[in-house]
Amino acid sequence: MPNDPKPRVLGVEMQGCETVITNPENNEDKKFAFNYSYWSFDKSEDHEFANNARIYNDLGKDILDNTINGFNSCLFAYGQTGSGKSYSMTGDGDKGKDPGIIQLVSRGIFNLIQEKSQVKDNGVEYVVQVAMLEIYCEAIRDLLNPKAGALECRLNPKSTVKGFWVPELTRVPVKSVSDVIKFMDLGFKNRSLTATKMNKTSSRAHTLFTIKLVQRKLNPMKNVKKSEKYLETSGEITLVDLAGSECLKNTGATGQAAKEGRAINLSLTSLGLVIDALAKKAKYAQKGKTGAKQAKKVRIPFRGSELTKLLKESLCGNSKTVMIAAVRPSKKFYQNTKKTLQFAKRASTVSTKPKKNENPTAQLIKKLKAEKKKLAEELEKYKSMAEGKGDPEKDALIEKLKQQLNDASTELDERKDEDDDDDDDGMTEEEKAELVQAELQKYLKENGYNDDASQDRKTSAHLLNLTEDPSLSGALFYILADDSATTVGSESSESCQVFIKGLNIMAKHCVINCKQSDKGQQLTLTAIEASKTFVNGVHVAETIPLEHGDRIIFGINHFYKVIIPKVAEAQRKLDEQDGKRDMESLDYIFAKKRIIEQAKTPTKN
Q: What 8-state DSSP symbol labels residue 59?
């Protein structure tokens, strides 16, 4: 019970490292002890509020230290939908007042790199890569390259515990925190979201964001093969935002949303079975030899879902793993909260055995060279001792050392040859990564993710995308440069500044001209041949003027809104004075209705 005599309005309390929940039916308390218990619901005087920075200081710094020392780490957030898991990972987005663990970890990595780079004669090269995927209805999607389609989860040949990986996943090199945030934002815009009664932006998939740090140092040995040029140490941080467990009755989900909810619950059930089996195995292992035999018989169902396959390395292999259990404080969700805390308690008994990630081939070659050197020294030692003495025993020992030295040399040469075969493509890892980044940048440009132009949209006219999902509207934009023509079409990104593909999209679909005048930016749209272009639901056959707020439909499925910043700002001020509500969320519906209403309207001239 709490120290103060006031009746408890909420169903959860934090008392030191204990989380206390109250059963609304009989007001009985149940306590769960963890390493940390945080209150992040509100900033009331009765509780010590914990923001993401505090959570990072307690949990994230250890993860960062592990990574810089060459160990893998995993942090995953588990809990009911709407409990704040995604907020812990990503924070408050563009506001920046409470950045999430992903941003804070990224900032920590680059701060450490900067500190270590300033050390004299450090000689270490640092490479940071990011990757992002989601598991949606048991299908794996690359969030940094959605066009790749469904990806396969395969056994990782390098895993010591027969773990799994996604070999075709896009891994992008990044050089700053802003790069990480840019790709994180891109990935989250591509996520599968659905509004439910319990959460307006409920994630319909599990999201895995990976940051890999590679530290490379020149091999001090001379005349080495290409693959031996660097000695590498690497560490990966996997940050997992699990989709929230759902009671379909409470969420009100139907149709596709209900199907998604069932898929989420099934994968979380598989994760629960894995945790139970691992906890059982850990319990047996504590009972000595008898328990060890029983532990070997425990079957862990990692193949039950794509989620558990990808988390296998983190849960029982080469990783230091941290779990955040997020709960909703209302008494209404007592049963969900209880199940979440019980799951977290079982998960806390699971142990992993992390190993330092070093280039195995380079380390083996280094070991063989050391062994060869030691044998050569021993051989010379015994040769000098046996000179002119004719000692049969020492002569036999010398022959044995010669044979061992010959065997070591042969194995060393074989390893070098094998290592060279792996580099037949002639490309270093950096060159491969840079190639991937170049392809990704092209994809970003073609699809409206123009990071360099993000500031221009505040002053320049531009097209903003509209979609049925309000959370994705405005994710893409195309700048309409002053005193120039912008071509819309599917021919190529080089000839079409607005490069779009789809049904009824022509190679060169239409042209939008933007000219500066005393009245500001003046826009016109010219249709090309018989293209299907609609402005506010009216088919366009020739040249027409465009105004701020006009809805344009290219073909059938591409919906955009015209934005002229100066006009938009003036309109916003007028709307505030008149007390009008923002109608941005109705843009897509409005555009679609207009095309239906105006279907029989004569062509606009």
A: I
Structure tokens that stand for 391 in this block: 């000692």
Residue 333: what residue type? F
Q: Give residue 150's identity as a one-letter amino acid code.
A: A
Q: Which helix (H) or strand (E) holds 261?
A: helix 255-285
Cα separation, 346 vs 344, in Å, equals 5
pLDDT tens digit string along 142-174? 988 877 778 888 888 777 677 888 988 988 888
Tokens of 124: 């270490």
What does the alpha-carbon distance between residue 388 and residue 372 come to, in Å, rounded to a whole number?
A: 26
* Tens of pLDDT, residues 21-57: 988 888 889 999 999 999 988 877 777 888 889 998 9
In the chain, what is the greatest distance between 2 CA atoms, to the nearest angstrom?
114
User: d(Cα 244, Cα 340) in Å, to the nearest integer?
Assistant: 11
Residues 6+ apart with CB under 8 A from 535: 525, 544, 546, 550, 551, 552, 604
Q: Report the pLDDT value the prediction gives residue 445, as an integer from 0 to 100.
A: 59
For residue 335, the one-letter residue type is: Q
Q: In sequence order, what are the residues at sequence separation of 6 or more whose Cβ sits closer than 8 angstroms to the Cβ of residue 407?
A: none
Active-site residue set: 82, 84-87, 241, 244
Q: Residue 134: helix, strand or coil by DSSP?
A: strand
Nearest to 144 by CA among 92, 190, 211, 208: 190
Residue 96 has pLDDT above 90, yes or no: no
How high is the pLDDT of residue 31? Answer: 92
Cα–Cα distance, 270 to 454 (Å, whole number): 42
Q: What is the mean pLDDT of residues 219-242?
A: 76
Q: Has this prediction a pTM greater than 0.85?
A: no
**Pairing assessment for the beta strands 230-241 and 73-79 based on DSSP bridges:** parallel
- Cross-strand partners of 128: 174, 213
